[in-house]
Amino acid sequence: MLQDLRFRLRALFSKKAMDQELSEELRFHFEHEVEKYRREGMSVDAAKRRARLAFGGQEQIREDCHDARGVSLLEATIQDGRYSLRAMRKNPGFFSIAALTLALGIGASIAVFSLVNTILLKPLPYPNANRVVMLWREGPLAGIGDMPWAPGEYSVMARQTTAFQDLGAFKKDSFNLTATSSPVLLEGVRASAGFFRVLGVLPSLGRTFTAEEDQPGHDHVAVLSNRLWRSRFGGDAGILGKTIDLNGYPYTVIGVMPASFTFPNQDGIPPILDLPRETQLWVPLALPAVPTGPNELGVIGHMKPDGTLAQVERDMKVSERRLEEQIPQEKGWSSRVVWLTEQTVTNARSPLLLLLGAVCVVLLISCANVAGLTLNRSLGRRRELTLRGALGAGRGRLVRQLMTESLLLAFAGGVMGIGFGEASLYLVKRFGPDSIPHLHETGLDLRVIGFALGITLVTGLLFGLAPAVGATRMNMVEALKEGGQRAGGSAAAQRIRSALLIAQVAMALVLVVAAGLLVRTFYSMLRSDAGFDATRVVTFELPLPAPKYADTDRMAKLYQQVLLRLQSLPGFQSAGLASVVPMGGAPDGTVIRMPEHPARNRSEQPYANYSFVSPGYFSTIGTPLLRGRDFNDADTLSSVPVTVISRSMANKYFHGEDPIGKQVGVATTKIPVRTIIGVVADIKHASLREEPDPEMFVPYTQNEIRVWPSMQTMQFAVRTRTEQAATVESVRQAVSAVDSDLPVAKFATLATLVDRSMTADRFSMLLVGSFGLLALLLASIGMYGVISYSVMQRTPEIGVRIALGAQRAQIFVMVLRQASRLAVAGIAIGLIVALGATRLMTRFLYGVQPTDAVTFAAVSFVLLLVIFLACYFPARRAMKVDPMIALRYE
User: Fold this and answer.
1) SS3 for 91?
2) Residue partners of 426: CB distance under 8 A and separation at least 6
3) How far apart are CA 604 and CA 791, in angstroms?
4) pLDDT tens per residue, range 609-647
5) What is the DSSP string of 514-548?
6) How far is residue 700 from each of residues 128, 332, 463, 591, measured CA to CA in Å?
7) Alpha-helix residue ranges (DSSP H) falling in 432-490
8) 680 and 625 Cβ atoms separated by less than 8 Å
9) Are the C-beta atoms of residues 198 and 298 closer than 8 Å to each other?
10) Per residue in 243-276, pLDDT tens?
């Protein structure tokens, strides 16, 4: 095999030397034959003649020997490549436009695939990631799913289950880092000792928690994130063993995690866990022997090596039955198991698939566009191809030549596309939303480069094969009779041109309709009633350290003092606080009871969000009071328990009755019910597209439950008289006047929070809109090219028409009529496809139907207008044809 390979390589790269050797060998054999016949008595001339007859044609022998070397196909391909390069140099305008068109489609595909590769295809950076699952609770009521675990539930389940090698639990917690120049809020996580073992991640410095440290009273140790270690502690390798003050307690630093580890965070995790955007430190969870508390734990498990997801689900069902035996209130609840790799991309999967579908349409339009251009060019070369066929080139040889040109063109487009894709990725990473997981890790790796090479090859075949086959279907006699440049091609070629253009128009319409629906959605979100007025409202969060503020009475007193300080600041109009301000996170929820409307069974128990607020909070954020009254300073623990409910709660549970004076409370009868004193507009908490859930608001001065919802961290809202009135420093001074150890965290205007909540929708709209504009541009270029070529082919006909008396306006209308037929056909097909395709976008839409008639009509009109503009100049050129010149040329 090696000898054969060496022979073929020598035949390829030392062709002249081997041809010289072959000539010498042939000459030797010929002279040997001549000498043989001379010895038989023949003359020199007769011997040479006899030797030639016996030896055969030397040129045929040369060709046979050349074919025997096995490199004829490769040599022909190299020859085709050289010829194609010469053709590119002769016609740089065509090849530049075609390569740029392909580069746009390939580059956009590379950019989107890079996102898909990083977010959906790459494994998580945890050694055990492919064996880790996340566990959720599912409530007995419809719509209560993906709930966290209560500490008691987790404790029982951890003892009963046998399907896991390790289990880990965690919950969010905030920590005030004090004993520094100014207090700083750190967003961290309390995690069990098994948390790090489940993921299999080792710290870059030090160690993680031990089982002994995950016990109450022994839990004052901390593991820092790499970013926190570098930003706050200067990357000091001697940090291990040092003490930091968190919430007033000393914590010993025992480890630093790698830079790539920030789990858990908000990537794909439901907002009910209220996880940080990036975890800054981890401390032990330290559950007591008999744990109690609300549903606030996230749970992950490392499956056993021989375990399957089905086995885990069966094991969890067994654990659920035992859980019901020990905690009767758990009856009707179940568990859901999901792979961690799927959980972390839950929110990003659908938008990425939408973008992938959109960019595939752009790529197909690019291919159809270049296919049309290539077909027009190849038909213009029919005389050349006919001559080559007449000289002996077979149809396969001609197709191979044209396909070589197409592949070289695709390669040029692919190289340019990689650069375009890299630039697009830079813009996406620069302006993309933080909600996209691992966005800043995207880049061109081996998989993306392989995808680029593959898509370049596919595009070359897609746009090159049909024109190559169409151009070589020719009648040689007729083609030689026709003028080379005016040869319009067969009816089949014309049908291919029309079909390619109709396909471009149809695909462009589908993509622009999708972009139009997303634009309508974004506009509907902006116009929606959010239940508040974000104008001149600033928000911030105030976390209280547990040791210093252990009871709710002291918390309430501090909050009241801070509110008074804020209200007295110059330029401040009003101030209020709440468990969660609009767009500040998900509120807590609970099963409720209404004595006047008792639930008939457990599955019909009502459910509502439950939030603490202060008097004046609704007026501060601009939430209208629809009925009744707001809270006031007289609503305290010594007065009648009261509540204000949302409009959706009044409509859903009181069925048209006046809710004022009715009673409602949490499910347990140990807590007295509250009297409804008012109804306010629905407030959207997470997104402008959400449908608000029923919600009840309670004055923070009437927290009789005390342990839930937690008042340890509250969010403030301040309305100012001018845009510049509120600053971080003025708010910090007001808080420091009450307690100098309290940090002011998450300072932002309410308008900024609203804007952040729309980043994902804006990102999808802009990207799909960009692809739609690109598709519109490519379709218009394709229409321009086809109509321009048609005008060139019909120049003699147009000259005859003008000579016979046709008005130039009639010529103009004739050209536009041809374009309009193709455009209307493409639009009609596109509308049919769009009616089905847009139904797949339902989950991305808000305030608009997927078959919205206004969007479909507007896009069709815009597309017709663009096509008219693209055809205007070819039509004008047709009007100016000089019949004498046209007929003389013919």
Assistant:
1) coil
2) none
3) 72
4) 999 999 999 999 999 999 999 999 888 888 899 999 999
5) HHHHHHHHHHHHHHS--SS--TTEEEEEEE--TTT
6) 44, 32, 68, 20
7) 446-471, 476-481
8) yes
9) no
10) 998 887 899 999 999 988 888 887 778 777 878 8
